[in-house]
Design goal:
The complex is a heterotrimer. Chain A contains 10 helices and no strands. Chain A is an all-alpha fold. Chain A has one domain. The model of chain A has no long low-confidence stretch (mean pLDDT 89). The longest helix of chain B has 54 residues. By secondary structure, chain B is mostly helical. Classes of the chains: A mainly alpha, B mainly alpha, C mainly alpha. Chains in contact: A-C, B-C.
């Protein structure tokens, strides 16, 4: 119980800071909007069926703006020596990881909840009867992205070329998440039978579980001084 | 016969890469050896210099 | 020294087998012989990344610089063979499939593997030297390798749901192969593995000399 309280304290600290400044959230949201708009220009929706391209565009918007958020995740802690402060308190290192991970997850999910309606309007897609399935896929995909993403952002913040380093490290690793998320989103949007989706959902769950455990265990080696 | 060209191309690239890597390794290694030797000599002369100073 | 000569002999034996002994495959013709380079390169790359994985675990456990050196060296040599896979694959595909590149499951997996370990080497290059760099890259070495089976399944399903590109004749090496071809392949596998260990040894010794040099420099600074 105490452990959960500590995690929550870290999550709440980040959320409060974000509510005050809205810095990360606003840049993430505007960026994902820009991706959606730019893709509208790069493809002719009168000639290509929106459903062929929409799932990919949606996940590109999510991952690219997700990178923006993750890049900032540990920057504040680094610049203000917060991590040192946190490590001096009797908080388990893995609690720091879970706290930061949940903070990033919540931030990304909120951004996605606002971005999806915009996406629906711009691409003219109906999702009203599939919201639940879509939510499951978006949640699992975002969780996979954020588990490894939080681990790597704690790493890249200590590297000279941090803004570039994070996507270079993260994108190859999350290739399975992107494939599974895009495929299952596409299958849901075009009313494919449930059997088409379930194997991708399983893949997402396997990825999430494996990398949640691995990141949880290896995080202490990253922030160790 | 054109396919034979492709085979030779692949073969050539593989050995060029492997020998190129070996060459770069040995060149970097030689450079390091030279620097190590120079530094060791420098350390030696400084030791000798210090010991003569002590004697004086 | 004996090891070098042994490697030299095996490599020559493999070349003789590949170019003179092994029969020309009936359907694909002489181009099929690229497989005797392609498959062993892929095996060596995969093996090298496995060594990175093991050495990374051992580093985090024991915290000995030795394991960090092994992981680094193995990743570098592995990238070379992985690049060779990505180069020889298209050279084979062009005359057979008519295109340099298809997003076939295996090619895609190799490309993702290549990207992961290029990122690993870039991280090593940019991270602050010392134990932090070693810990960071060890974590990436572990995460990267655990990702390989998941990437494998994802690209496999990704491709099989779509209409498949022409079935590869390299799909299952060994099956339906003439014994001579199998012997050639095995000799070549052995030759490439020996070359790998030779290169790995060279790279490790280079890194150790670099450590020695840094130590001497520090000593010199401390004294002056």
């Amino acid at each position: 119980m105490d452990y959960l309280n500590k995690i929550w304290a870290i999550v709440w600290k980040d959320i409060r800071a974000e509510i005050r400044t809205k810095e990360i959230f606003s840049s993430m949201f505007i960026f994902s909007l820009l991706v959606l708009v730019i893709f509208n220009f790069s493809i002719d929706l009168l000639e290509i069926k929106p459903l062929d391209i929409a799932p990919g565009v949606l996940w590109i918007a999510f991952t690219f703006s997700g990178i923006l958020g993750l890049n900032r995740s540990f920057l504040f802690e680094k610049e203000n020596d917060c991590l040192q402060g946190m490590m001096l308190t009797p908080v388990d290192r893995s609690a720091i990881y879970l706290g930061k991970m949940l903070g990033n997850l919540i931030l990304m999910l909120v951004m996605e909840v606002i971005a999806v309606p915009v996406f629906v309007i711009l691409f003219n897609i109906g999702i009203y009867d599939k919201i639940f399935q879509l939510a499951v896929v978006i949640f699992l995909g975002t969780l996979g992205f954020v588990t490894v993403g939080t681990l790597f952002s704690a790493m890249s913040v200590n590297v000279k070329t941090r803004e570039v380093m994070l996507p270079i490290l993260l994108f190859p690793i999350v290739v399975p998440v992107i494939i599974a998320a895009v495929k299952s989103t596409g299958a849901i949007l075009s009313d494919k039978p449930f059997e088409d989706i379930i194997s991708w959902i399983k893949l997402l769950v396997v990825f999430d579980v494996i990398f949640l455990v691995v990141s949880f265990l290896s995080f202490e080696y990253i922030i160790e001084e | 016969m054109k396919n034979f060209f492709y085979l030779l191309l692949a073969n050539g690239i593989i050995w060029a890469a492997i020998f190129g890597y070996v060459y770069s390794l040995s060149r970097r290694g030689k450079e390091l050896d030279r620097e190590i030797k120079a530094l060791k000599e420098q350390l030696d002369t400084e030791h000798r210099g210090q010991s003569t100073e002590h004697r004086a | 020294m004996i090891f070098k000569w042994f490697t030299f002999i095996i490599v020559n034996a493999a070349l003789i087998f590949i170019f003179l002994v092994a029969p020309v495959e009936r359907q694909e013709g002489i181009i099929q012989k690229i497989m005797y380079f392609h498959i062993p390169s892929a095996w060596v790359a995969f093996f090298a990344f496995f060594i990175v994985f093991i050495a990374s675990i051992l580093y985090l456990w024991k915290k000995e610089r030795e394991w960090d050196i092994i992981a680094h060296s193995s990743a570098e040599v592995g990238i070379i063979f992985c690049s060779l896979v990505l180069i020889t694959g298209p050279i084979w595909a062009k005359p057979i499939w008519g295109v340099w590149w298809t997003w076939d499951a295996r090619l895609t997996l190799t490309l993702v593997l290549w990207l992961i370990y290029v990122a690993y080497l870039m991280l090593r290059f940019h991270a602050p030297e010392g134990s932090q760099r070693a810990r960071f890259s060890a974590v990436l070495g572990i995460v990267g390798f655990l990702d390989v089976p998941i990437v494998h399944f994802s690209v496999l399903w990704w491709r099989t749901i779509h209409p498949k590109p022409k079935v590869l004749s390299m799909e299952s090496p060994g099956s339906g192969m003439e014994p001579v071809m199998l012997i050639t392949l095995l000799t070549s596998l052995l030759a490439f593995t020996l070359i790998f260990f030779l290169l790995l040894g060279q790279r490790i010794s280079l890194e150790k000399r670099r450590d020695e040099l840094n130590e001497l420099k520090n000593k010199l600074i401390a004294e002056s």
